[in-house]
Specification:
about 200 residues, mainly alpha, Arc Repressor Mutant, subunit A, Tetracycline Repressor, domain 2, 2 domains, elongated
Length: about 200
């Protein structure tokens, strides 16, 4: 059997994730079986096991892929930028991601993931670890800005928690009423909040 390229392997894994997303969105986690995903993806069960050991592992990978704050973590890695520029760029990128049609299609499933699995210690730890990663990224940028004399001496952990909580709350409001959130105004307001931290 010829060796597959990394690109082909990544594409097949993404194809399985897309199929799983369709199945979980249609039936929920507990009602979806691996056989459902096999049928949707058009692959063998062995083809799924190459990438994922179980339905639960696949679901957890899907959660990691869907988390909107993942975009935030990526955008915080900006070289040769001030803390102010980095934070504004990251938050603006997150607004763009959350207001996109693609995210709106998956946000309901993301919320369903939280609600269905908070009682599961493994999922709860996954959620906690991911939030901690995003929180620490924000804290690091804010504290860097304070240390360099860009930002006032604010409580970085509290600011980070407020920003993350705001995005999750906006996501829920947007799901309930798609006319409730004006994302351009949200972006402008976040820029104003970050600017208010400047010395």
């Amino acid at each position: 059997m010829p060796k597959l390229s990394p690109e082909t392997i990544a594409a097949r894994k993404q194809h399985i994730l897309n199929a799983a997303l369709t199945c979980f969105a249609r039936n929920g986690y507990h009602q979806t079986t691996l056989d459902d995903i096999v049928k949707e993806a058009g692959v063998s069960k062995g083809g799924i096991y190459v990438h994922f050991d179980s339905k639960k592992e696949l679901y957890m990978a899907l959660f990691d892929w869907l988390m909107p704050e993942a975009e935030l973590a990526q955008n915080l890695q900006v070289d040769e930028a001030t803390a102010h520029e980095t934070l504004v760029t990251a938050l603006s990128g997150l607004v763009a991601g959350m207001s996109s049609a693609q995210f709106r299609q998956t946000a309901r499933l993301l919320l369903d993931m939280w609600l269905q699995n908070l009682h599961d210690p493994e999922f709860q730890q996954l959620f906690a670890d991911q939030y901690d990663q995003y929180r620490q990224s924000l804290i690091s940028i804010i504290e860097d800005g304070i240390a360099k004399g860009e930002f006032k001496h604010v409580d970085a952990p509290s600011i980070a928690n407020i920003l993350l909580g705001a995005f999750d709350g906006l996501m829920v409001q947007d799901l309930i009423d798609d006319s409730a959130v004006e994302w351009t105004a949200v972006s402008d307001t976040l820029t104003f909040i970050v600017k208010s931290m400047l010395i």
